[in-house]
C-alpha cells in the first residue's frame, strides 16, 4: 500500500468539541459561566461586607479624623496635617516612640530566640516534652493584665523578691522604680509571657523537617549544632519570618501589660505609643490628635512587616542562588 493511501486521523480527546459561534450551545455555556460567577460573588459577598465594615470603613474614618480638631462631642474642624506635625514636636510622643521601638525590638528577638531554642530541645514527641510545651504556652493564654499585676506584686518594692532579698541583708532592687531597670523588667516579662506562642509555631514547623536529612547528616558526622544551623533552621525559615512579623506587630501596639505592670512609670520611662494614645490623648478628649497617633502606629506596623518579609525573601533568594 502506497504512502498516498495513508490517512492521518485526528488525535482523539475526551473533551467535547467547542460549539461554533452562533451555535445554541454557546449561549448555554455563557449562562452556565454567569451562574457560576454569580454564585461565587454571592458566597464572597458576606466576607467582603464584613471586611469592609470592620476594617476599610474604620480606617477611612480614622484618616479623616486625624486631619481634624475634634474633642469627641462637638463638630470636627478640618485642620490638615497639623496633628501629624505635633507628633514630631511633642517630646513625650518622641520618647514614647523610642520606648516602643526598644520594647518591640528586644522583645521580638527575645521571644524568637528563646522560643526557637526551647522548641529545638522539645521537638521530639513524648509526654515529658508535651508537658513542657504546655508549660511554656500557659502564660500566653492568661490575660496580659493579670500577668502584669502578678509580676508587679512579685517585683514591687514590697514584693516577694525584695522581701526575700531584705532577709539576706540586700537592699530592695528597683525593678519597677528605676527608669532603666523598669524598661528591662518590662521587656523580660513580655518575653516570658509571649515566647510560648513562638514555641508552638516552631514545634509544628520542626515536625515537617524530613528525618532522612537529619539521619544522613548524623551519619556524615555532623554535630547537633551543625544540623540545627545548616539544615533545620533554614528549612523552617518561613515560619521564623511569620513569627518575627507577629512579634513585631504585637509589641508595637503593646498596652495592657504596660498598664498593669508599670503604668508607664517611673517618670514615663515605660510609656509606649499605645499607652500614650489610650491613657493621655483620649483622656484629654483630643481625639483628632490621638487618631493621628493611631494612624502613624498603623503605618509603622505595616512598614515593619513589609521590611521584615522583604529581608527574609532576599535572604532566601541569595541562599537559593
TrEMBL record:
<feature type="transmembrane region" description="Helical">
    <location>
        <begin position="231"/>
        <end position="252"/>
    </location>
</feature>
<dbReference type="InterPro" id="IPR035906">
    <property type="entry name" value="MetI-like_sf"/>
</dbReference>
<dbReference type="GO" id="GO:0055085">
    <property type="term" value="P:transmembrane transport"/>
</dbReference>
<keyword id="KW-1133">Transmembrane helix</keyword>
<protein>
    <submittedName>
        <fullName>Raffinose/stachyose/melibiose transport system permease protein</fullName>
    </submittedName>
</protein>
<feature type="transmembrane region" description="Helical">
    <location>
        <begin position="141"/>
        <end position="161"/>
    </location>
</feature>
<keyword id="KW-0472">Membrane</keyword>
<dbReference type="InterPro" id="IPR051393">
    <property type="entry name" value="ABC_transporter_permease"/>
</dbReference>
<dbReference type="InterPro" id="IPR000515">
    <property type="entry name" value="MetI-like"/>
</dbReference>
<feature type="domain" description="ABC transmembrane type-1">
    <location>
        <begin position="97"/>
        <end position="308"/>
    </location>
</feature>
<dbReference type="Pfam" id="PF00528">
    <property type="entry name" value="BPD_transp_1"/>
</dbReference>
<keyword id="KW-0812">Transmembrane</keyword>
<keyword id="KW-0813">Transport</keyword>
<keyword id="KW-1003">Cell membrane</keyword>
<feature type="region of interest" description="Disordered">
    <location>
        <begin position="8"/>
        <end position="27"/>
    </location>
</feature>
<dbReference type="GO" id="GO:0005886">
    <property type="term" value="C:plasma membrane"/>
</dbReference>
<comment type="similarity">
    <text>Belongs to the binding-protein-dependent transport system permease family.</text>
</comment>
<feature type="transmembrane region" description="Helical">
    <location>
        <begin position="181"/>
        <end position="206"/>
    </location>
</feature>
<feature type="transmembrane region" description="Helical">
    <location>
        <begin position="96"/>
        <end position="120"/>
    </location>
</feature>
<feature type="transmembrane region" description="Helical">
    <location>
        <begin position="39"/>
        <end position="65"/>
    </location>
</feature>
<feature type="transmembrane region" description="Helical">
    <location>
        <begin position="287"/>
        <end position="310"/>
    </location>
</feature>
